[in-house]
Amino acid sequence: MQKFAIRHILTAALLLAAPAFSQTNPQTDPQTNTTLLVDIDHRPATSLDGDWHTIVDQYSTGVYTLHQELRKDGFFMNAPFDPNGHPQDYNFANAPTLRVPGDWNTQRPELFYYEGPIWYEKDFQHTAAPNTRTFLHIGAANYRTLVWVNTRKICEHEGGFTPFDCDITAALHDGNNFVVLSVDSTRIADGVPTLQTDWWNYGGLTRDVSLVEVPDQFIDDYDLHLSRTDRSVIEGYVHVASAPAGTPVTVTIAELHAKVESTVDANSRAVISIPTKSLSLWSPENPKLYKVEISSGPDKIEDTIGFRTIETRGTQILLNGQPVFLRGISIHAEAPFRTGRAYTQKDVDTLLGWAKELGCNYVRLAHYPHDERMTRTADRLGLMVWSEIPDYWALQFDNPAVLAKSKQQLSEMIRRDRDKASIVLWSVANETPNTEARTKYLTAMVDLAHQLDPTRLVTAALLVRTEKTATGSNKIVDDPLGKALDVIGTNEYIGWYEQHAEGADTTTWDIRFDKPLIMSEWGGDAKAGNHAPSGDTHPALWTEEYQAEIYRHQIAMLNKIPQLRGTSPWILMDFRSARRVNPGLQDNFNRKGLVSDQGVRKQAFFVLQKAYKDRTLGKAE
Ligand code: GCB
């Protein structure tokens, strides 16, 4: 079989990263690399979703000996258990199962608080077709993953919210095969995210797993977008893995009667330019998607892509050249009704359905890349998207290995989703401390985002400084990171972590950047059904009435900020968080949702809905 070079995503980042079992194992194949196949959800695939045998391995016994040396006979060998044979401490064949996709925490009560490694095993049948390669696709596994196929070490991946694909061709044989994975959800200080987060650390194979067969030369990456300088030209590239220079590539958009041919260069990359007439531009009002067919030799894929431009001009955000105000809401990937990590189309339809009901044209997908169904659906529904990597709070900003991990996750997020018209903003961070090391680190991240995707805007949610004034307070937005950003995001919690809701009436804003500003978070907790007595003019904290008060005062304040171009209050739905342990009120939920985890709309939902529907919040110019 022809050898080929996978276009590795920041291999260096993976090598720098130090997963729990990263030492070379004599029993394993040295290959530890992963790639990421774009548009994989449109490729034929053999699903490996369903029940997997699992072993909870608190002490990493499956990898280490009693002297903490790497085992040759670890659980990855999946040796059959023989009661009369050599004593063996594991037996996948009758180990309990977990459903994939799905976090383990909400599948078994005893795993609710579990953070650590769990082994997964699945048998599958395979017959290799000639001149093909087979990839194991993992939609997301939180947080560190090691993969073996038929006892052979295949790849490793760190990062809980981005997909990866491992070439398993060489390890497969016709007939019965098995895959063994170790997924370790241990939080680590030098991880991305790091030790502290305000969301539940759901572990496991949280998104789809499948086998994907591609021809020896295959389309692994492309970018097709509308030119910012000429809105009648679609431009970009197609990359064909292992294709020698001169290999032809064809891109067809039948509805536009457009068909262009190009050839790949020495880097297996073909430049694409498609002149179009009467292109219907994607927007929230017109979420038009075109069927785009890309082919090269025996490989052919189809995508559905919207075309639009997104830019800034002074303090405006321009969608297709027109000023736009982003009427948004923040969303966690938390499953409505059942809790746990969201991954089904139904989860996505429910969450984005609520956002539409609110009157949104925009969502902030916090604080990590969500399932690809989310961005595909946003494309179809006409919701603009802020997509973020978990550079959250206080990462080890002076640690180059951590920077490499952030870069890897940013690259994976952009590579997976650059075909989604809905995404208008890449966010590189949330509420990071203002230090020199942080600014250097995140400026490098902004630069990388611009380099990987020069067609979108880059943002981050910043913290804000407060000064007391004679009449109230002044919020100063001057975080030096703002210099690098296209759009400034700021979080503030007037009425919750600071002041009373009325504090918003006497708060002024001093924004030291001539750029668009998005109030990326604001809000407060309310437990659904917790009401103030009727007629109470000073409702207590945690009541629906008080949360609604916060929203009323905030909306009035926000309307006084001339360069405000969007908002995404915190948050659409209550979500699990280990930090929120106040009994009776929180019970491990952050209660800032406008909707409870059981789908109950709180009063503030209707306050925001009215403002969005009446267009009484925000101005596009
Ligand atoms: C924030 C964080 C968000 C938290 C939220 C809160 O500033 O960005 O992740 O969940 O506040 O509820 O405190």
UniProtKB/TrEMBL annotation:
Top-level EC class? hydrolase
**What is the taxonomic lineage of the source species?**
Bacteria, Pseudomonadati, Acidobacteriota, Terriglobia, Terriglobales
* UniProt name for this protein: Beta-glucuronidase
- Per the UniProt entry, the Enzyme Commission number(s) are 3.2.1.31
- Species for this entry: Tunturiibacter gelidiferens
List UniProt keywords, sorted A-Z.
Answer: Glycosidase, Hydrolase
